[in-house]
Amino acid sequence: MRALVFEEFGGPLTVRSVPEPRPAPDGVVVQVGASGICRSDWHGWSGHDPDVVLPHVPGHELAGTVAAVGERVRSWSVGDRVTVPFVCACGHCPPCREGAGQVCLDQTQPGFTHWGSLAELVALDAADVNLVALPEGMPFATAAGLGCRFATAFRAVTGVGRVVPGEWVAVHGCGGVGLSAVQVAVAAGARVVAVDVSPGALELAAACGAEHLVDGAGDVPAAVAELTGGGAHVSLDALGAAVTCLNSIRSLRRRGRHVQVGLLPPAVGRPEVPMELVIAGELAVLGSHGMAAADYPAMLSLIEAGRLHPELLVTRRLGLDDAGAALAAVGREPGIAVVTSF
Ligand SMILES: [Zn+2]
Ligand SMILES: [Zn+2]
């Protein structure tokens, strides 16, 4: 099959022929219909993820058609149209038993723990636990984002941030997950302040419903406090950088909730969290890591009811031959790129 491969961290990303994956006994192989390009792929390529073993095929936010099924799989058949949370849970460890498969102790992640979806085929483990059926008529390019950016944003805003109507939400970093968070927060009845250093990204945030746009190069906490009458109720670092994490915490009003969504591997620098502010303001500092398959129905029903529009977030469609350049350039061009031909 054709796949995007890198042999060294930060090295060339080339499309070449590699052996096809076979399904594990409890897993499937999916013919990839679309695979989004995400900042986490860039982290993996850059050598920030200890799970990645070379040579490697990146790609973790995908949708496609089941092409082969392991002998122990009960619920899925060849031809089913599916997506999958990027965290594939085991289904039986303590967090999984508590319904928190997104922090499974024995998780696998396509594109990190094994070869990913920037390829014609991808293997997915524990299919009965993790696969999610696509609503009829949803194109693969839209559905791919449900594997990572859109579901991650949905759970960060609704499940972890617990945003309620009328609250102010600040979103720091308007890439894929940030733009998704803007849209989800607006749909939840929140008023949104979007922050980014790129005017193009802020334009997209406005199109997603952000009420105020703030230049990330300025004094962000002061701007958010001014616009919201004292600070955000909920603030998300959707980028994953020391500066956006700190700006997010400092943007909160008393008793506000910071949600860390963007990955912060030590290689990009550890933020010095101002714990004195956390105590004095009774701030909550929360982490959010994807969303378990069992939590997808609530999000899918809002999409089917027309309350959420993940399709509006795809700004570029690429062929696999252009995926390497797009992956290496993550963050340099606003919007969301999805590979739709392999
Ligand atoms: Zn991702
Ligand atoms: Zn588990």
Automatic annotation (TrEMBL):
Gene Ontology terms, MF aspect: oxidoreductase activity; zinc ion binding
Biological classification of the source: Bacteria, Bacillati, Actinomycetota, Actinomycetes, Geodermatophilales
Source species: Modestobacter italicus (strain DSM 44449 / CECT 9708 / BC 501)
Keyword Secreted part of the UniProt annotation: no
Family indicated by similarity: Belongs to the zinc-containing alcohol dehydrogenase family.
InterPro entries in UniProt: ADH-like_C (IPR013149), ADH-like_N (IPR013154), ADH_Zn_CS (IPR002328), ER (IPR020843), GroES-like_sf (IPR011032), NAD(P)-bd_dom_sf (IPR036291), Zn_alcohol_dh (IPR050129)
Annotated Enoyl reductase (ER) domain residues: 10-339
Name listed for the protein in its UniProt record: Alcohol dehydrogenase GroES domain protein
Cofactors (names): Zn(2+)
Keywords of this entry: Metal-binding, Oxidoreductase, Zinc
PANTHER family documented for this protein: ALCOHOL DEHYDROGENASE-RELATED (PTHR43401:SF5), L-THREONINE 3-DEHYDROGENASE (PTHR43401)
A Pfam family reported for this protein in Swiss-Prot or TrEMBL: ADH_zinc_N
